[in-house]
Amino acid sequence: xxxxxxxxxxxxxxxxxxxxxxxxxxxxxxxxxxxxxxxxxxxxxxxxxxxxxxxxxxxxxxxxxxxxxxxxxxxxxxxxxxxxxxxxxxxxxxxxxxxxxxxxxxxxxxxxxxxxxxxxxxxxxxxxxxxxxxxxxxxxxxxxxxxxxxxxxxxxxxxxxxxxxxxxxxxxxxxxxxxxxxxxxxxxxxxxxxxxxxxxxxxxxxxxxxxxxxxxxxxxxxxxxxxxxxxxxxxxxxxxxxxxxxxxxxxxxxxxxxxxxxxxxxxxxxxxxxxxxxxxxxxxxxxxxxxxxxxxxxxxxxxxxxxxxxxxxxxxxxxxxxxxxxxxxxxxxxxxxxxxxxxxxxxxxxxxxxxxxxxxxxxxxxxxxxxxxxxxxxxxxxxxxxxxxxxxxxxxxxxxxxxxxxxxxxxxxxxxxxxxxxxxxxxxxxxxxxxxxxxxxxxxx
Length: 445
What we know:
The chain has 18 helices and 10 strands. With 445 residues, the chain is an alpha/beta fold. Strand 4, helix 3 (97-105) and strand 5 (115-120) form a beta-alpha-beta unit. Helix 1 crosses helix 10 (272-287), helix 2 packs across helix 3 (97-105) and helix 3 crosses helix 4. The longest helix is centred in the middle third of the chain and has 16 residues, at 272-287. The radius of gyration is 22 Å and the shape is globular. It starts with 7 loop residues before the first helix and ends in a 5-residue tail after the last helix.
């Protein structure tokens, strides 16, 4: 049977879903003639490169397992079998069930060959005794004798980095042989009522403190300035560096394209903000159409390759953390181990930056927030929407949004757009915030 002809606008919509959406049902994309656009007959994936994680001396895989996006422990076993030996989790993920799953998954593997990193929040009222007990609970859930890396989860201010309770608790736990190395993770500020410090300042405080061995922060080819400064400072102090949010366009807009198509199919009116963002995506895709047709980039593979090659081309990066959601992700990401930038991936990076840079609210940026008269924590909300759309962590994202103090993005619907006016990257943030509110206000029981 002759393949059904697709019109130009449908081509652009398909391209949008591939370029802008990473790994949400499009792992092995099929062309209009029913053939795969990439070679799916690949060998078992294996990590090709290991890097020394700063002064820990531990050789970690250049591709690490970040916030785990699966409840299937066999996916984690497949990751480890593929050579990934850095597994990151947190006390708060899935109410501790994430740590339990990691504990089950590592059974049968040599414990000393795997670097387990977990993160724990440290509220102002926490005591040293309370924190020690909580870390010991982490050990119980992980079902292990020790934790390699213990981090302050989502440190959002200089004062959190300097928390004396954490340092005292860590020293006690280290003396008992229960933890080895300390660190912080940082997404930028978490302010609810007043603007906070930048990611550069927060992580910079940790690098100069002298007591932290590892840092985890946002770095990608669009959001790179702060990360490059942090990487250089870490190299001077021999501090381990773990990257998160390495793909700036990881799934954030796939849902918009799908939502608009669903509205059209159901003959329902399309919300104005959805239509604006959709039209902008199609407009940018039109400009990039010749490139897309030439290289048949209907899928996320070239975009994924560009993001990982950018991260791993920097020798100051020790591991790029990936949210593995399924077995396809195991193959797709582990096969990128050892990759470096090429002329092709540089072309893809420049294309995405030029055509879609104003669609990406930079993680850990926070520049616009002090201009908002309603104190909306813009970057925090967009991060939660990233969890929702890119990482398939819907329940977690909705709960975090529900627990926000102060204003949420509902007020942004009728706002004059102070954030957009002050954004140095001209991000269409008001429309994106409205979509975030739509997603994060859903009732998922």
